[in-house]
Design brief:
Keywords: DNA-binding, Transcription, Transcription regulation. This is LysR family transcriptional regulator. Belongs to the LysR transcriptional regulatory family. It comes from Geobacillus thermodenitrificans. There is one protein chain. With about 300 residues, the protein is α/β, with parallel strands linked by helices. The chain has ten helices and 13 strands. The chain has a five-stranded mixed beta sheet with strand order 4-3-5-13-6, covered by helices on one side. Strands 7, 10, 11 and 12 form a four-stranded antiparallel beta sheet that branches. It has a two-stranded antiparallel sheet with strand order 1-2. The radius of gyration is 24 Å and the shape is elongated. The two termini are about 35 Å apart.
């Protein structure tokens, strides 16, 4: 019989690519780790690694077994977490990944959650939508808060309230108007939010400019809203961002104006890996988030949305 320890050893070797590094990560000596791998291969009757290469590379059977072993270990972790929660309720760590321009959805909910569940600690991760999705797939976070669109094939998606786009200008431009039209941006350098990978807000703003008959002069594109707004404050150009993004950071040196002839809205959502067990702490957090921002309530009787 193959035991859980051997599966964990095998997965670690596959991910580290070397027996030495795997032994260090597992805090065991190299010879017994090599012996465990040998025993596993003997039980399976196939070689799992190509030992001729400089780095230990998985064979074809090894690649298949690696994917299956990871699934089994994840299922075991989920089962242990679910069993523990039957007795203990909401405890442990809640890991949340969030796009920086969506932080406004979080602050009040985190405070209220901590008041109700003081035994739960938080692990917050920040990144663009692509990196938050990666963190969720790799199980570094329990839930993600991202900007849409995304590929929904792996996730349960709970929409958050949409958010109007606004114009943000350097304060010293000293425009006398109280609002702008999209055509005003034809004359200005634009600084736009852009994902590291995939399409999102950048493409939406560019398309809106084209719909109004001009090609935008994009001076800078950046995935970080704080950097972008800081550049606007320094007079580098104007930007178009979700209104909640500006209200969250409140930088000096900028002026925020509505765009009267644009119906663009930024869409955000909570995403959950539909293959994973959803801890009670996530259900409690989402219910509080729902009360704060008027989103659909997650059904706690189900593991998924």
């Amino acid at each position: 019989m193959i035991d859980v320890k051997q599966l964990k050893y095998f997965v670690t070797i596959a991910e580290e690519g070397q027996i030495t590094k795997a032994a260090q990560k597992l805090h065991i000596a190299q010879p017994p780790l090599s012996q465990q791998l040998k025993q596993l291969e003997e039980k399976l009757g196939v070689p799992l690694f190509d030992r001729k290469a400089k780095k230990m590379e998985l064979t074809a059977p090894g690649k298949l077994f690696y994917e299956k072993a990871k699934q089994l270990l994840h299922q075991l972790d989920d089962a242990i977490a679910e069993v523990k929660e039957i007795e203990t309720g909401a405890t442990g760590t809640l890991a949340v990944g969030c796009v920086k321009s969506c932080f406004s959805y979080l602050a009040q909910t985190i405070r209220q959650f901590h008041e109700q569940f003081p035994n739960v600690t938080f692990h917050l991760r920040e990144g663009d939508t692509f990196s938050i999705c990666q963190l969720l797939q790799e199980r570094h976070i329990d839930i993600g808060i991202v900007r849409l669109p995304i590929d929904s094939s792996h996730y349960d998606i709970i929409p958050l309230p949409s958010d109007r786009y606004v114009a943000v200008l350097p304060e010293h431009w000293a425009l006398s108007r109280s609002s702008l039209s999209m055509r005003d941006f034809a004359e200005w350098p634009l600084l736009l939010l852009h994902r590291v990978h995939g399409a999102g807000q950048y493409e939406r703003v560019v398309e809106e400019c084209r719909r109004h008959g001009f090609e935008p002069n994009v001076l800078c594109e950046c995935p970080d809203a704080t950097i972008l707004l800081s550049l606007v404050a320094q007079g580098m150009g104007a930007t178009i961002v979700p209104q909640s993004t500006v209200s969250l950071f409140r930088l000096l040196g900028i002026r925020v104006l509505p765009i009267v002839d644009s119906s663009m809205k930024a869409e955000a959502a909570v995403i959950i890996d539909r293959q994973r067990y959803v801890p009670k702490s996530v259900h409690h957090f989402l219910n509080l988030l729902q009360q704060t921002v008027a989103m659909p309530i997650m059904n706690e009787k189900s593991n998924h949305v």
